[in-house]
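Q&A log
Question type: sequence-to-structure
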Amino acid sequence: MKIVMLGAPGAGKGTYASKVLAPELHVPHISTGDLLREAVANQTELGLKAKEFMDKGEFVPDELVIDLLKERLSKDDAQNGFILDGFPRNIEQAEMLDKITDIDVVLNVRLADEIIIKKIAGRRICKKCGNIYNVADIREGDLVMPPLLPEKEGICDKCGGELYQRDDDQESVVRERLKIYYEKTAPLIDFYEKRGLVKNIDVNGSPDIMRPIILKLIGKA
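Response status: OK
Response body:
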């Protein structure tokens, strides 16, 4: 199954992709941000090209990201499907994606902006493997989202790496990211809805609560 994850930053795309969908479907969770960082760290040809733009504080060109993604999708573990997280971010990128692969379903994760802001402020990420945790304990009406804590404070359960809070997980930065999301990325929902591919995920609890809902939504309950 080939899946694209949509939703505002902090809505839970990465968590559901890595903790629910990838283990259940036995397909890779592919984050374009992780791909770029890995390519740069490994000093691959594409990584070195991307680093030139990143060092200048510029966006990596779509064509370069697509080349990197195409290379990743050619690997053996992606032949039975994949979960894309962070790409496409706009209509132009979606049209470029059409040229290298087809998509079976688009999962649109929906969560109120104010909850997203609280959630992002509590997010902690592993420096080594990118595994995501959250220290926020959110209880708003019927919405209950307990924290996702590691067994040992500050240490990733998966690889033992150090957990950290990203600099851009500040409220003012998050609000600006949400603004950009609604301007640039949200139109993708309509783009894919016209193809009948969109299934909405209305978040109302922790990943454990959402797991059976998501699997039922894609016919894998």
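Response note: The mean pLDDT is 91.
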